[in-house]
Amino acid sequence: MTAPNVIDQPRPSPQQEPAARTASTWHSQIPDDKAMLRAAAELTRDIATARAAIYWPDMLGSAALGYAALAGAILLDSPLAALACGLLASLALYRALLFIHELTHIHKDALPGFRFVWNLLVGIPLLIPSFMYEGVHTQHHARTRYGTIEDPEYMPLALMKPWSLPVFALTAILLPPALLVRSALLVPLGVIIPPVRKLVWERASSLSINPQYRRRKPEGAFARMVFWQELGASIWAIALVAASIAYGWRPLIIALCVVSLTAFLNQVRTLVAHLWENDGEAMTVTAQYLDSVNVPPPALLSPLWAPVGLRFHALHHLLPSMPYHSLGECHRRISAHLGAGSTYEQASYKGLMPLLTRLARSTMRAG
């Protein structure tokens, strides 16, 4: 899907009117800002190590709070108290789940045991083992794939019809029951029916949004990891269904509703992670950066809807391996070094609602 009358316009400068900045985009081959790329690399080398003292308490605390609140949502008699617990559970589990993003980028030896424990406590219980993101998300960062048909995490949403945005967001609500069916039924069925196994792997084994993406068969050590994670998720899913048949469906339905809200929050965050204005061409690193979004301080609510460093998503595309706890300091250093009016500053936005409004206006122009 293309929109030459929009895509071929140049990127507005910071001095132009805000309305003009909202109404236009830039060509995918905007030249790289080498000063920005150099500053990003040189100013942040000393804070590029993942710190176990931050990762472990954050992940474990988020998971513990999420499960405790989920128990309250299931067990409390007061509807208001149960609803409050459900909302808290959704936010806490959202943060715990998003450590899957860190797992795709940190070195395999950086945090011994972290991947295993995260899968045991978060990935498998919520039926989203880390293999569903590992080996997929890195393709989104590939220099020649970002924004193209080969990018599993890109759709030109800004160039699509206005109705595509609510559909995109609301379909996330169906993810938890779909994952339950996948692990409890389709994966075991695939053991005895190879075509089902092939279909499930290609089409339903990755956290991707590009409907044309097909996942390649796993190999080597990764295939062994997939086997054990799939086995754990299937055993857990079958146990959930069996327990619900034996003792009642209410706890499982409440849990699915809580995780559906988590999936919806993540889908809304995804809507504003990028500007989604590329129509399929390969992009320079700077163009990829400008098609991505930072929502830095003083935005107060961004840590809630974009936790674990994802409020610095554009910066993350400059420094993919930078641990989430260092991104705030990276942003401060680069901003101070490059100053106001720099290319770096152009990827910063004020908050969720201005970004959603910008995206909706883009779809209305495209439509």
TrEMBL record:
<feature type="transmembrane region" description="Helical">
    <location>
        <begin position="53"/>
        <end position="74"/>
    </location>
</feature>
<feature type="transmembrane region" description="Helical">
    <location>
        <begin position="80"/>
        <end position="100"/>
    </location>
</feature>
<keyword id="KW-1133">Transmembrane helix</keyword>
<keyword id="KW-0472">Membrane</keyword>
<feature type="transmembrane region" description="Helical">
    <location>
        <begin position="167"/>
        <end position="193"/>
    </location>
</feature>
<feature type="transmembrane region" description="Helical">
    <location>
        <begin position="112"/>
        <end position="133"/>
    </location>
</feature>
<feature type="transmembrane region" description="Helical">
    <location>
        <begin position="221"/>
        <end position="241"/>
    </location>
</feature>
<feature type="region of interest" description="Disordered">
    <location>
        <begin position="1"/>
        <end position="25"/>
    </location>
</feature>
<protein>
    <submittedName>
        <fullName>Fatty acid desaturase</fullName>
    </submittedName>
</protein>
<dbReference type="InterPro" id="IPR005804">
    <property type="entry name" value="FA_desaturase_dom"/>
</dbReference>
<keyword id="KW-0812">Transmembrane</keyword>
<dbReference type="InterPro" id="IPR012171">
    <property type="entry name" value="Fatty_acid_desaturase"/>
</dbReference>
<dbReference type="Pfam" id="PF00487">
    <property type="entry name" value="FA_desaturase"/>
</dbReference>
<feature type="transmembrane region" description="Helical">
    <location>
        <begin position="247"/>
        <end position="265"/>
    </location>
</feature>
<feature type="domain" description="Fatty acid desaturase">
    <location>
        <begin position="80"/>
        <end position="340"/>
    </location>
</feature>
